[in-house]
Prior knowledge:
Chain A is mainly alpha-helical.
Amino acid sequence: MEGIKRLARATAPAQGGGALGALRKIASSYLLRRIAKALITIFVMASLTFFLVRLMPGGPVEAYIANLVTQYNLSHENAEAQAASLFSLDLNAPVYQQYLEYLGNLARGDLGESLVSRGVPVSEIVMAYLPWTLFSIGTALIISFSLGIMLGMLMAYKRETKLDHILTNLGSIVSSIPDYLMGILILVWVGVQWELIDVTNMRGSLSPGVQPGFNLTFIADAFYHASLPILTYVLGTIGLWMLTMRGSTESTLGEDYVTVAKARGLKERRIATAYVGRNAALPPFTQLSISIALVFGGSLLIEWIFVYEGLGYLLYNAIQQRDYPVMQGVFLIITTMVIVANLLADLLYSRLDPRIRIAGRD
Amino acid sequence: MAATTGESRFRDSAVGRVLGWFASTLKLMARNKVGFAGFLVVSTIVLVTFIGPIFLPSEVPVDVKEIYETPSLSHPLGTDSEGKDVLLQIINGGRPILTIGFLAAAISTTIAVTLGSLSGFLGGRADTGFTWLADMVLTIPQLPLLAVLAGILRLNSKIAVAGLIGVLFWPTLMRAIRAQVLSLKERDYVESARALGLGTPHIVFREIAPNMAGYIAINFTLAVTASMYFVVALTLLGLVPLSEDNWGVMLNLAWTRGAIFSKDSIFYIMAPIAAIALFQLGLVAMNRSLSEIFDPRLRRGS
Amino acid sequence: MSATSGTPIELEHASRNYGSGNERVRAVDDVSFTIEPGQTLCLVGESGCGKSTTGRMAAGLLEPSQGRVLYGGKAVEALPEEEKKRFRRAVQIIHQDPYASLNPIRNVTQILSAPLQRHRLVKSRSELKSRLHELLETVGLTPPEEFLNKHPHQLSGGQRQRVSVARALTVGPEFIVADEPVSMVDVSLRIGLLNMLLGLQKDLGVAFLFITHDLAVAKHFSWEGRIGVMYLGRMVELGPTQRLVGEPVHPYTRALISALPEADPELTRSKERLRLRSPDIPSLLNLPAGCPFHPRCPMYEEGLCDTDRPAEDAVDLEGHLAACYVAARELGQEDRIPESSRAAGAEAERRTA
Amino acid sequence: MEGRDEVLSVRDLEIGYATGRGLVRAVRGVSFDLGDDESLAFIGESGSGKTTLGLSLVRLLPQNASIARGEIHFRTASEEALDLTTLDDEALRRFRWRECAMVFQSALNALNPVMRIRDHFADTAKDHGETNGSLKGRALTERATECLQMVQLDPDRVLGSFPHELSGGMRQRVMIALGLLLNPRVLILDEPTTALDVLTQRAIIEVLRTLKDEHRFAMIFVSHDLSLAAELADRVATTYAGRIVELGEVERIFYHPRHPYTVGLLDAVPTLAGEQQELSSIPGSPPDLIDLPAGCKFHPRCPYATERCREEDPPLMEVAPGQAAACWHWEKVGSDWEARGGERHERDAHRA
Lengths: 362, 302, 353, 352
């Protein structure tokens, strides 16, 4: 039965002239579908956050008002007014109106004001921390993905050798130890026990006095401060890429088109890159989206451990200080980042695998 | 058939069968050395942390004269900043973490299997809906959400923590189960069973479920490792105010008391890290045996 | 034997759709036939022609989107409970892929005893045991003791197919749908399997719907029975084997017969070939108007062939049916061609003249 | 036959696979010659070693396989004599496809799924550039177009397509066209028509026939399908348990077989023409290549088997001009066949 559907689909573009146009149409609608899905996900997450913050009994807004009333002896109205301006909510309006207003504010980029740093818009705070997280996670993912892919391929080419066994075991060990424990281990051993690096100096996102700009000092300093988080992210994710790539390379090496490429007398290097590597990298690539969410999430601890001033660090402090608007804002931004990164990964994937352009869904 | 010997009657009895099953499973486990080592590590940790505390004082005695001691006969893993024995804390501190880990894994596996099977069997709207939901949950950065929720809700009970983690961690497995059901229900032998009129219970429990059991078991252990990742993370951040000693709290205290930056405290810091890492590694290694046990081609014969 | 006292199975204008929206295809389109007890019908066609879907409908495993499957004259889905149970036991299926047709985690004993116990066909353990032996001997797996405890992966492809057959036989079927049962088995073992199935028909009076892509196998299996040729979901020709193979009517059947390579050098090299107008098969998603074979057909006539879809019995030579208007005209059955096609054909002829 | 030059000659080839269970003896002492415009078919069931043999001719054996013994001599277009068993990797690479192209059984998956057909042609041309002058740009497109037309494909449509956009039969023809690109001396085709529909099979057989008759390629077919050999082969080799058990001109093999295995195969294949035949299968199943029986490997399944067959493995002996069989009882097999000849003749009569 499946066979028939597949047949129908496989021979579908064989229908003469309109084939190319139809293809493009499907590809573009895939793009649209994917973007729509991302937007809806962001919308759902934003709504979820609203109801958590606003409606949960004993939730932040109520807690804050109660706190103002009891601690500062404010009247309920005054307290509510203050809460309203902080959370950028009109607490007297019906809930649906509040909800719409909240969405409207979000769309304008208004995330409310911080409880702790009075009067500072959350969006401003978030924007100050965001680049560092993007920088460290982006760099780490690029390094770990490409390195992992290369090592995985190497392992598959040298399968059942000592090198393969060592790397396989290393890969499964690093991928089964939580990344933040790895971070603590680095801190404790490299920083404290062996005193190889000065971890206190590496705190923060930049050294005092270094000004952002396109110059070597700045770039070197940025890398210096991000190096431990990056190292931790790389260690935390590389095992997955190595093992997935090893497996997929091994099965790709058994594919007929690789044997045929050898029979065609193609050069070994060409086969390894365009035939084996290109195809074998597809399965690890599909895991990229899951991994992005995990790494963004993990940044909460990693940045806390290394006192690296990114979103995770901001979120941790906000939670400690019960700075609800900031918590909400950071959470929304992280979620949006993950969704956008997923979208980009998916779109890139559909460029890498021509079959996806036809199959469309899934 | 008439003359049944005592021995074979024993073999036929329920207890005998369970023991026999247990013995043969162990034998299968032992076939993969790495997997068996993992199994030994996991079962040792579970036994020690669940049974050990029964024989130990519930409060580890404080001794200010022995702060950050290196390992010795009386303190095999040294002592902490209050002079408490580290080994005792490790033995006492596994149960809460493991309980939450197993509970959360059970919750997420149950959700995943239920929704995945429903999606696969029902198809249509239910399938589209559940798949969407899974995709959505999958893109949530789980740790920040948990942290925010912990910040808002003040999680005090283990069940609440486990529930929250479980509710977030099902989508990967659910998608896999759905795919499995979709492929299994189209298998020729399932169709044959339908043609033979063997009935839905037979098809679900005899033909389909056993083929997924291994997959589910392996994913359950993976869910345990993932849940532990979250529990330890939350306790380490001090967001889950679990009062008892546990490995996460030990790390948190090490952090807040500055032990991390003291050269003397290395045993105190390494002990919980090693316990967690060993348990996680053990589970992952054990999966190699599990996948062999559930592969019918390796079950019998050579 | 008395087992031929079965019930006829009938497909009445049965169709089956897959997919939805733009991807909706009609995998089987308006197929009708009857199989009397003890009879054989071979369905022949290329992959994707709908023969397997037809087989599954006949076995009651798939409901037709339109039309009906009749068992003893009554629609299968509307059978009363008792008769439905009887139908379920009377009609069985054997699949193509010996590696997918047996559950890998169940051994031969488990596979065979489940239906026996479910339908209470055996009363004691000893009866079960002797029945299992009997079944394995029937399908040529001897000695039975050697096979009872084996798992599928310990058996060869041919042996697995025999276990599949034994499983179908557990419930004493009257009618078996055999979906390409030998195409994945080694050449030297195929005939053994086929002959075993033929033996079942002779000794037990089992009726067969035998599905294959290989006309030569169909001819061997159903020399006394009938062959139906399917193309793009439609039955294009249906008739007694010897007549259909000897004097095919539909150009598609002729093309198949002329294209089939034979294991005889002189014969196969001197065979007259029918040249197709196009080598490529149209997509089910985008079927040509009129006769679905017309874009490839060497006998194509403008107007006549691409206006109406030829009825299954456009040609009817005493039970030998073919869906082709050109053949109908040439065989003097012009009255079976609808007015519109005749007019379109005449119009086209006038234009070219 | 006289004056025919051998392009390929294989002598006493022995290939084994090292497996966990032991040594799989896939090819055991195979020798044959291939004329430069000849087509030779290897017929056998799974496990007969025919695919291993095909792969060894371009030295593409899997890693766990090794050539234990024997020689493979190849005469190139420039009359250079090569022993393939001793070529180094780079020389082998240049030899492959340039001199000897191989089309595989599962052509469905023989093309890189992420590359357009055009790039497959370009890749092949580029990596053989040093021996092939400058086949690129327009010259390449022209040559690719020519090759695709030879296999009756529409180049405009095919060149820009990805493999998954083509049907199975089209992909198989693309592979054959790709094989023609460098105009090799020998084409090896491993089950070129298996798993394809009858009408598609026919199209491919016709293409191959044209290549053979008009373009005079030397070809080696490897197949389980007797009818493919009947269609296209000049000579046929029946293989069983890693050996050639009968080798001869196609008419001899089909009409006057002298090995009981060949007879068994012929008796097991139904034909469409004529009345219903009495068909029988060969009893038993193919042998375990790790644990082969003593003597003639076919004896456990052979109706003619005697004490001698159980002890001595018969060599390939000449049984008629242009035909050799490895059977101690070939005379008896032959006389029995000819005595039954009535059936076959009846079929011949029916055909006339």
